[in-house]
Amino acid sequence: MGARGPGRATVLSPRALNRAVLARQLLLERANLPVVPTVERVLGLNAQDPNLPYLALWSRLERFSIGDLTTVIQDGALVRSTMMRATQHLMPVPDFRFVRPVLAPLLRRVQRNAFGRRTAGVDLDELVAEARVLLADGQMLTRPELGRLLARRRPGIDPAALGWTVQYLLPLLHPAPSGTWNVRGPTPFASAEWTGVRREATAEDVRELVRRYLAAFGPATVADAWAWSGVSGLPEVFARLRPELRVYTDESGRELFDLPDRPMPAADLPAPVRFLPEFDATLLAHADRTRVMTDQIRRQVCVGAGVAATVLVDGTVAATWTTHRKKDTAVLTVRPLRPLSTTDNERIEVEAVQLLAFTNPDATTMVEWNR
């Protein structure tokens, strides 16, 4: 795990931190769990594209079918909304209920930075109140539809800016079939009132979010938690929680915090090949991402606002992957980012074939290499 001197915190190596996050994100061994507890355990799944949560769960669960996730989205057990990093995420209702208010200050900052000038002079409280009325009684509208309705009383204001502003300032859901497998197109907005989401977060809500973050991604620094959440005031929150947390350090001397009951897997534990979808939180949940990829590889994976789909080999990013169709054949292309052994190549191909069987069960499949 790491060295420990007299009176000093245990020092965790990058490999120990890697194995910890892989274990907590269910990437060391596929779990035999239902879908909703899995999404709760990993603290939400990125859902910027409807297929991303399905791919994330396929890499984490022993037995998983497309219908397993679609059913709980349709039933409302999981909801899709604007959450961490101001992007679409899928979460169980109880988590959404307390996490969304904690993120509200971040989302207000995003609105101000992105649309503040275009909504100058607009009473934002009044705008949100009107949007609540428009979405009452189960009414659903797309963002453009909502923006146009709100613009009727605000001449000269860009309807798109009004629609986006409401998306950031008002807890909204995007109900099924939006967000289910292969369903794209205009995204419906619906009120989240039925979830019991709170208007304001409590101090305990913020502390609980930190605990849940550590359970899913720890051990981690304060900066790591901020990189994942964007929540302000975290140094004070960690200081308040410090008596109940376990403290480590990394090899650079930075303090790492964790829940006291969380086991640390052995650093030499083997890690299987795993295919991660775009924007997988395993790659984004820390300010220091070297536990899962080198800085050189990160620059090839995280380009602009995009985060590529990746292949983990021995726990760290070794390649990116994409899929496309060639007539009746589903093709998965692997692009290595570092040298790979013959054994690594073989294991990647085995996992790729299984992934294609999941995504394209009726198609002929092929794995290509872009070296």
Automatic annotation (TrEMBL):
Keywords: DNA-binding. It comes from the Bacteria. The keyword DNA-binding applies. One of its GO terms (molecular function) is DNA binding. This is Winged helix DNA-binding protein. It comes from Amycolatopsis cihanbeyliensis.
